[in-house]
Amino acid sequence: MREPLVLLPGMMCDARVFAPQITALSGSTTLVLGPVTQGERIEEIASGLLDQLPPRFALAGQGMGGVVALELLRRAPDRISRIALLATQVLPELPAIAADREPQIVAAQSGRLAEVIQNRLASGFLAPGPQRNAVQAQAMEMAESLGPEVFVQQSRALQRRRDQQPTLGKCKIPALVLCGEHDAICPVKRHNFMAELIPYATLTVLAEAGHLPSLEQPEATTAALRDWMQQPLVLQ
Predict the structure, then answer these.
(1) Which residue, 191, 152, 163, is CA-closest to 175?
(2) pLDDT (tens digit per residue) in 51-83
(3) Cβ atoms of 34 and 8 closer than 8 Å
(4) In 3D, which of 157, 168, 200, 195 has the Cα closest to residue 74?
(5) What residues of the chain score a pLDDT lower than 70?
(6) I need a labelling partner for 175 at 20 to 30 A (CA). Which of 15, 115, 165, 235 fits?
């Protein structure tokens, strides 16, 4: 694949969420990290990224990064050669979930970000198993590095996200939809739904993984990305 691979991390994550994939793929692929921390609307974040990214690229987004990836695909389909959506959402935020974010925002603004993140990690975020504690510690480190201001901005952006079902229906490029079997934030049934909307999608469900499959099952995630990147560009 000649195009660089752009990686978009999820909410309160940075390059470390893709550390295993960066290590494994950097010898054969040009990798670009796109931050999703600039703006309080998904459209604003995507607009800023388009000004910085290469003219044409493969795109992989995890969680909130996947939401931004869908907006990039909606805005600039001719610039994206293939897309991977990891542990993410295509639908707008439900009013009840948007309302639940408000006390989290208040807590983060009042100096209790660590408590908010710990509660999120305890609520079906990660799969059970021996890797859980280590991944949870990594997630906490990333979140605390980014800080409460980023948490508030990203929360607002997710509250206001649009319905991207029409975008997926128009997708004619190689697409990977990947999720963890134990992800209670973005469950398997929603990824089934996304894969059914895309004409040529590959659905991969990883056992023993939750909302951070790139860290919980790094080798399986990397293998799925390799297979996706090797698919021929004959679908367009």
Answers:
(1) 191
(2) 999 999 999 999 999 999 999 999 999 999 999
(3) yes
(4) 168
(5) 1, 234-236
(6) 15
The tokens for 83 are 């897309």
End-to-end Cα separation, the chain, in angstroms: 16
One-letter identity of residue 23? T
What are the residue ranges spanned by the domains of the chain? 1-236
The whole-number pLDDT of residue 234 equals: 57
Q: Of 168, 181, 175, whose CA–CA distance to 212 is shortest? A: 181
Q: What is the CATH number of domain 1-236?
A: 3.40.50.1820
Predicted local distance difference test score (pLDDT) of residue 124: 75
* pLDDT at 236 (0 to 100): 45
Both tokens assigned to 175: 């697409």
Q: Are 63 and 8 spatial neighbours (Cβ–Cβ below 8 Å)?
A: no
∠ CA(217), CA(223), CA(225), 5° rounding?
100
Residue type, 117: I
Partner residues linked to 175 by β-bridges:
83, 201
- How far out from the chain centre does Cα 213 lie? 10
Q: How many CB atoms lie within 10 A of CB 163?
A: 10
